[in-house]
Request: fold
Amino acid sequence: MKEFDPVLEYLSRYVNLSDDEKARFISFLKIKKVKKRQCIVQPGFVCIHKTYVVKGALRAYFVDQEDKEHTQAFAIEDWWISDYSSMIYQEPATLFVEALEDSILIQIAHTDMLRLLEEIPKLEKFERIITQRALAFQQKRLLSSFINTAEERYDDFMNKYGAIANRVPQYALASYLGFSTEYLSKIRNRKSSKS
Amino acid sequence: MKEFDPVLEYLSRYVNLSDDEKARFISFLKIKKVKKRQCIVQPGFVCIHKTYVVKGALRAYFVDQEDKEHTQAFAIEDWWISDYSSMIYQEPATLFVEALEDSILIQIAHTDMLRLLEEIPKLEKFERIITQRALAFQQKRLLSSFINTAEERYDDFMNKYGAIANRVPQYALASYLGFSTEYLSKIRNRKSSKS
DNA sequence: CTCCTTTCCTAAACCAGTTCATTTTTAGTT
DNA sequence: AACTAAAAATGAACTGGTTTAGGAAAGGAG
Reply:
């Protein structure tokens, strides 16, 4: 099952599974290939899967009443993505999760994950830790949106996630950082004229 | 150990513990009483405890370079609070956690909690679930800060958490919602003149 | 290669929310 | 009750970021 190795490697950073447990885990995984612009989650439908990115790039975004998009998260190789709220509460999604490039994904259904958590309690630790880290990240991001100016947030993102910034469309980046594409353009212009 | 009952009741919503396990859990708990304005977490010191509020009200806030405060969370009766990031990474805190009223708290050290998680794996489920919910909440809050105007965010908060809003100082509420006290004052004025 | 769509850039008018400076109200303390 | 300090209100001047409307560049499909 070589195709699932990346996920097993990811798991092994947090928890040690026996070969049997690994096999059991893998039995619930599914490979999914998607083309650019294809959505794997849409508002109105419950988000069933947790999705791991083997190859490619995706984003989760919300569309508000004025049809404006707000990017909630990006995911590239070795990241997870989903409409988290929809998945854990088994409610209709509010987000789109869309491929920004042709991508190869590995998915596990939330209900299967819950079953696995019962079977292999060690996995709970994995879930807890990655969720804790996601929470800490999200808290920092919210603070930053209040504390830093648009330009500071842009700089921070370029420093930490330049690899992502250079791969995703500009409107997606601007809507992640919480300002308009026009303003992103203005920021970049300001920078290039300075140097 | 009647004094710890509120925490046990909280736990029981997520996981069933035997009497032995309950006793073991309780053995790590400590009661803490604090006066208004007293801080239980400060920048520079590692946040050791997870804190449950038996009675009273607290807030966690960040102070930026311009000495402006940004409230990250409130906690009243039956809520938990801490500098989450500092606690899980065992790094110096960046937040203050301050009592807004004289309060009675129950604390558990993070290291003790980790030990308990090893001893009583059932507890992992508890940790995972409350963290997942906190994450979903945080994600909604960030989206809302991008999508909604200051006034809409104020209205939402009043609807959902009116009980908190009426208990905390106005500057704390404004800094939670992400705008200035002056503007909050303006919003309230607008409303009272309308009705 | 050409057409067409999507993405990116620019600039001026505009507005939601801030800043600053001062006053009024409230709450805590002796 | 009187004093003090903290919190809330007010209003005028200002600004970071949006909006609107356009044109330029880049990528994909035939």
